[in-house]
Design a protein that fits this description.
There is one protein chain. The protein has 227 residues and is an alpha/beta fold. The protein contains 8 helices and 6 strands; from the N terminus they run ααββααβαβαββαα.
């Protein structure tokens, strides 16, 4: 997998350098300049976010986009915000991460048999990418997936990621999204839906730790060929 690892690193550099969407460039850089008071001492990343994880992964976790004061600050997907805290704690319980926390790009987090990425690579205003911005980023997901040759399961965090996965794999008619919903993708891959680990879902109990544990348990079973 050395060639794939190198190719993923080259792709990551290309993603980080992207300035294709003026609205997203302006927003991510404005957030990086203005900062949140609690992170005033941070030098924000303020650029697009590549995927992160194990190049040999059988499980791909797909999110929506970087958080303005999370990944847009730290430079790593789902790192430095409450959504990431909830997600990586679950991944640690599932044996997919070596630690339950994700606070900075150099915190020692390693993923096992899992790769985490997003459908859109820049933090969008109101966490809502425009269709043209979504489509401009689609090629990055296509190229990442092509290099992740062992992926058997895609965990889609939220409706947006579910729709992105269905578009990528050309699934028609699109299966209905729901927490725990599953669909078979071309090549025998399995798509599993989960509510997004946003504070809106986790603070209200719409998504609980046990619910996310069930999703990752199903993902690991499917990745091993058991479902």
């Amino acid at each position: 997998m050395a060639s794939e690892r190198d190719a993923l690193a080259v792709l990551a550099d290309e993603i980080v350098a992207c300035r294709a969407c003026p609205r997203l460039v302006e927003w991510r850089e404005q957030v990086a300049r203005d900062k949140r008071a609690s992170f005033a001492a941070w030098e924000y990343w303020g650029r697009p976010i590549p995927g992160f994880g194990d190049p040999d992964a059988r499980v791909l976790v797909l999110g929506l986009a970087p958080a303005a004061h999370g990944a847009n600050r730290t430079g790593r997907v789902f790192t430095g915000d409450r959504s990431g805290d909830f997600l990586f704690a679950a991944m640690h319980r599932a044996g997919l991460a070596n630690q339950p926390t994700s606070v900075s790009i150099d915190d020692g987090l390693q993923l096992h048999d899992c790769f985490v990425t997003a459908a859109v690579r820049c933090a969008p205003p109101a966490n809502a990418p425009l269709p043209a911005e979504r489509d401009a980023c689609a090629t990055f997901l296509t190229r990442e997936v092509a290099l992740l040759r062992n992926v058997r399961v895609i965990v889609a965090l939220g409706q947006f990621a579910w729709d992105a996965a269905c578009r990528h794999w050309g699934v028609r008619p699109k299966p209905r999204f729901g927490h725990g919903a599953t669909a078979t993708l071309p090549g025998g891959k399995t798509l599993i839906g989960s509510f997004h680990p946003s504070q809106q879902n986790t603070f209200t109990g719409r998504l609980t730790p046990a619910m996310l544990d069930d999703v990752f348990a199903a993902a690991r079973t499917a990745a091993a060929g058991g479902g």
